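cache lookup: miss for this entity combination. No prior model stored, computing from scratch. Input as submitted by user K.M.:
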Amino acid sequence: MSTEMYKPGSYPNLPPPPGTVGFYGWIRNNLFSSISNTLLTIVSVVLVYYLIDGIIGWFFFDAVFDADSKIECRKINDGACWAVITRRVGQFVYGFYPEAERWRIDISFLTMFIAFAPLLYPDLPKRKWLLWFSGIFPFFAFILINGGFFGLAKIEYSLFGGFMLTVILGVTGIVCSLPIGILLALGRQSKLTVVRTLSICFIEFMRGVPLITLLFVASSMLNYFMPPGTNFSILVRVIIMFTFFSAAYIAEVIRGGIQAIPKGQYEAADALGMNYWQTTRFITLPQALKISIPGIMNTFIGLYKDTTLVVVIGLLDPLGIGRAALADTKWNGLSTETYLFVALFFFVSCFAMSRYSLWLENKLNTDHK
Amino acid sequence: MKTKILLAAATAGVMFAGSVLASTLDDVRARGKLNCIINTGLAGFAAPDDKGKWTGFDVDFCRAVAAATLGDADKVNYTTATGKTRFTKLAAGEGEILSRNTTWTFSRDVDLSQTFVGVSYYDGQGFMVPKALGVKSAKGLDGASVCIQTGTTTELNLAEFFAGNGMKYNPVPIETNAEAQELYKAGRCDVYTTDASGLYATMSSFDNPADHMVLPEIVSKEPLGPVVRHGDDQWADIVAWTLKAMMAGEELGITSANVKSLAGKDNKNKEINRLLGKDPLQGISKLGLSADWAVNIIGQVGNYEEVFEKNLGMSTPLKIARGMNQLYRDGGLFYIPPIK
């Protein structure tokens, strides 16, 4: 081998010495490069093993998935007692909505995705037709969930609860607050004094008051101005408050987007002879909204999570249902399991929203930042 | 601006007045359901079971009123309220009864224009300690560290009790009951103090409840009971006598098991006859109730003892002793006016 001769410059690249690259190489260089490193690695591996063993064991292997009470759970095994969730999953999802009518919630929830698809994904085939459905979906869902029409039994709002309540509050709040927020943002930039003043007042008032105060106003104060027995559902009152509150934040986020657009854009629009609405529709908003996507999504996720605050006015959202479950003497004391389950639900929803906004940002990215 | 507010207030006032004229009983009968305001969840008093049905001591009282007025204990709509929203919900007419472990105080009764119709449960602030501490009486707690919820009346009661007995303590301030449980379990405080029923509920959530005990001293008065709006005395009487009928049931030995047979025959004790509608009870028609009102209450819900034992008593994880919540003849505080 060593006798082979090469012309200058044509010596072939030899493979690196064994044990310096690849899996083994990485391990040797990073984990066992010195005695102290080797010791640290061994200690860490042992620690991680015990940690994971404990956690996974608690979550799965030692966990009890079906039992009649916490005491039964503890008799079977000493891990997590998921029975509190499995026995009450219906309550966590639908609240106290009558069991025979729950199909109405299921259908509303599934069709919600069909209604949202054309709004969220502009490239969808047959989008025009689907958009019609998106338009009628709010009425469709209201009739289905609330009942009282077409022979559907009317369901009292006090039976609403669980994840269903979160989704109703969150989705309605999000969908309604975006258009209102855009109008407020434009209003605040308007040259018309009355419009501008009103917008500023509204935004500053809503942002200057804690959400919890608004919820108390919705649940208590409004009652004093209505005769007893008036059926202005507290759910509607709360949705209005959520919408206004998040609209004020959205307005400020979008105003930031509008102000980030270079002045040249407006001047160019003026030079082309565009009027205010044309400029807004074709120049200002498309750019401003694109810039504001992360901020808007931030507000939406915040709103979605803030729906848990309704527990202070006695509406039983998942957190409220969880606390009520813990008040049952059968399940008293299983707070870790309950709160973890509710946290998982919120994480999944919020993570999905966050991923969607990232996807949208990349899609709309025109790369002349 | 001022005139506008006045106008709105006046309108609201007129509307209130208008609604008070219609009797609450008629409203309930027309609706076919009783609206009852309950706790969002308190062990033993109000909690949904796995099927979503509300159960508990306060819930059973709602059921008793529904049984008396509508003849069916299941005809109740439950509305949940937190401590902060309960009174406005009642005032706004979202329910006819507030049955939510509410303490009867002067200002709540007078200032908030409500009627407390009676006491269904005598609670009071107590102390919970680990048995290992070896303390048998709250007088032996000198120098102990105490977990105490800040901003509550319990804080003041605690200070008064210790000062009154010439003892010292280290307060460990906490915000919520859940936080208190964790700190107490971790041994950060020797004693946890709150209402005795809350102590028993907390204790029942421990893995080894037998290792802890509630000391005998009760240092504050917390009479809990159902509340109705001012202005409809007929309704207040109905609710008040529903509670008394349950207690009378215990006193006269009427239970959900024997009420039907007792109602069907002529009893030696004429009070039983009057309560169960065998003999005429003067004024029951003024109350707007049928003669079998008490049969419905006791038959469908039970007498006071049954309701107490089912939700709070020794057979439940809470294991609350009757204590003050007994008839006067057993050493308790319930002394029912004669049914005649």
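stored under new cache key. The mean pLDDT of chain B is 87.
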